[in-house]
Specification:
The protein has 195 residues and is α/β, with parallel strands linked by helices. It has a single domain, classed as Ribosomal Protein S5, domain 2 (2-Layer Sandwich). The chain has 4 helices and 8 strands; from the N terminus they run E-E-E-H-E-H-E-E-E-H-E-H. Strands 1-2-4-3 form a 4-stranded mixed sheet, with helices on one face. Strands 5-6-8-7 form a 4-stranded mixed sheet, with helices on one face. It is globular and about 50 Å long.
């Protein structure tokens, strides 16, 4: 089992995570930001990642620190759980529809963090008190900490919730594919011999 357990404390946030890449998609997520909890739960479920995450942050000021730091911790946990990355498929991709929205995600567990984020929200984006722009901050932090190249493209969508939900489900499925062990892959999946 490829597992990780990380705690990260700053003056702004206190985050604990337990993660199992070879899980069944069970989750317990509490960031005190209901919309983020929902999205992380979807990613875990569709990625078959067992995830326990508890985050406390200065949400009385803004959600930004908690969202970004959660992305950092999630990325570090994925990287730690992957270990030496021997035998992984390395690449993953998924296109996921959510009603009228369609999100496509491609990722490479490359050791080279990079985010391409092509997502346009409707002009009147409303998600209770959650700012949809924070999704890009979460994904940038995740990609950087995990050391992955992550491309997120939303072709179309009318409803902001549906757009973001499609993105997180697609990331879960692409991550599941990329982290899967392929018995035909011997060692590190790179001609360099290192990721």
């Amino acid at each position: 089992m490829r597992k990780a357990k990380i705690e990260r404390r700053t003056k702004e946030t206190d985050i604990r995570i337990e993660l199992n890449l070879d899980g069944a998609g069970s989750y317990s997520v509490d960031t005190s930001i209901p919309f983020l909890d929902h999205m992380l739960s979807l990613m875990a479920k569709h990625g078959l990642i067992d995830l326990k995450l508890k985050a406390k942050g200065d949400i009385d000021i803004d959600y930004h620190h908690t969202v970004e730091d959660t992305g950092i911790v999630f990325g570090k946990a994925v990287k730690q759980a992957l270990g030496e990355m021997r035998g992984i498929s390395r690449y993953g991709q998924a296109a996921v529809p959510m009603d009228e929205a369609l999100a496509a995600v491609s990722l490479d567990i490359s050791g080279r963090p990079y985010l391409v984020y092509r997502v346009d929200f409707p002009k009147k984006s409303k998600l209770k008190d959650f700012d949809p722009d924070l999704i890009e901050d979460f994904l940038q932090a995740f990609a950087s900490s995990a050391g992955i190249t992550l491309h997120v493209n939303v072709a179309y969508g009318r409803n902001t919730h549906h757009i973001i939900e499609a993105v997180f489900k697609a990331i879960g499925r692409a991550l599941r594919q990329a982290t899967a062990i392929d018995p035909r892959v011997k060692g590190i999946p790179s001609t360099k011999g290192k990721l």
